[in-house]
Specification:
two-stranded antiparallel ribbon, binds zinc ion
């Protein structure tokens, strides 16, 4: 008498486990990237990591290395910002002025009043 044990076919189960693992991998890293990104740029780094696919950890690493964008300072009411063409310093000029001297290099600039 021959007893033969039939093993169940686990191929679909293994395939599904691999597919679920792949989806978790491809979604988890973009979420990590979004959480590690600087404030206000989570969506950008989420999409970068999502587009990188299997290299998604690289997107999370990029998000960790990213720095905050420089904040734009607001001008006080009645002033405008002008950059010196010689030294690139930002100057705060009253809107009515028709010229200014750069605070850094002293270069004279003419402007049209606003
Ligand atoms: Zn200057």
């Amino acid at each position: 008498m021959e007893t033969r044990i039939e093993l169940p076919d686990l191929t679909p189960l293994i395939g599904m486990a691999i597919a679920i693992g792949l989806v978790v991998y491809l979604v988890t890293w973009p979420i990590i990237a979004a959480n590690e990104a600087p404030r206000g740029r989570g969506l950008v780094f989420f999409l970068i990591a999502l587009c990188l696919g299997p290299l998604a950890p690289l997107g999370a690493a990029l998000a960790c290395c990213a720095q905050d964008l420089p904040r734009r300072r607001r001008m006080p009411h009645g002033y405008r910002a002008k950059y010196c063409c010689r030294c690139d310093a930002r100057n705060q000029i009253p809107k009515a002025n028709d010229g200014f001297a750069c605070w850094r290099c002293g270069e004279e600039h003419s402007l049209t009043p606003v």
